[in-house]
Amino acid sequence: MAIDFPSEIASLQQTFSSIREVSDVEQLKSEVAELTEAAAAPDLWDDPDVAQAITSKLSHKQGTLEKLQKFDQRIEDVELLVSMGEDEGDEDALNEAAAEVEKLKSELAALEISTLLSGEFDERSAVITVRAGAGGDDATDWAQMLTRMYIRWAENRGYKVEELDTSYAEGAGVKSATVQVNAPYAYGTLSVEAGTHRLVRISPFDNQGRRQTSFAAVEVVPLIEQTDHIDIDENDLRIDVFRSSGPGGQSVNTTDSAVRITHVPTGVVVSMQNEKSQIQNRAAAMRVLQSRLLQLKREEEEAQKKDLAGDIKASWGDQMRSYVTHPYQMVKDLRTGYEVNNPQAVFDGDIDDFLEAGIRWRKEEEKAAEAAANQP
Asked: Domain Prokaryotic-type class I peptide chain release factors: where (predicted)?
């Protein structure tokens, strides 16, 4: 089937025009200059975590700026290539142009998504916690499967993943697991995964081979940074120490190095056992606690805004996505309607299309909320 070049090129130009309108190129240039200066500091690598954050953010923003600056020329180049190919009847040139059009469409779609991630903390790294819900061994196994899904997604993209805490179940899987994905915009991208995930399958733990429905809850919070101000009164904390343990309760540490911190006023509890010392686990737990309290503060502010705007369609409530392996194969997001028929690929981390659909859905919800709030 011949490609409709005029229509495709016009679509590319329109998409890029809308992206350019919402992208503050001058601000982006300023941020790149500031980050470049910070990356050149002689003492940068005295703190490897800070250095990694600066260099990753610089690389991401430089890449975005370069794409914005080059897309105009690339679209003009493909338009010229089409004109030459048609004038000279050059099929090779037209095939090359068709391939470039598809490449531009893909890259523009990715760039368009990045422009939708404009929230206050969207550019942060992400801390993901998966907790088993109802369903016994199936639920704890499901929680472990979901955790692996997010780890595989991050690893497939070359992102650094840290497993912060794992509470193993007595049977299969995990009661809960917390991982940190270190990458620019990891929080903005993965925050659409927050909610309840449902799995329907033939239970591997049922000797009669019956179908089982199980649930797991996913929480996503932005990683706290040194510039954030979350005041925590030490008197509001209850700190317990205990021995780390592995699957099946097997001891992996003979000292009380694991730490559990409870923020008494809110009831938020953070456990950390994957570091080697109590001091390291306490520091890691405090960072996650600050992240969760920061998110709690944001949710309270958003709740106030929603009260003013009224109820807008769906919300981030229970059962936001269903994964079915029996009696048919399907994964469907109940908010966006997006679905695929290959659950195994999804379990292996192929969730980019779900993330993109979720980000676009969230933006539409925000627009609807703003419109409702502005009505007289």
From this structure: 243-259
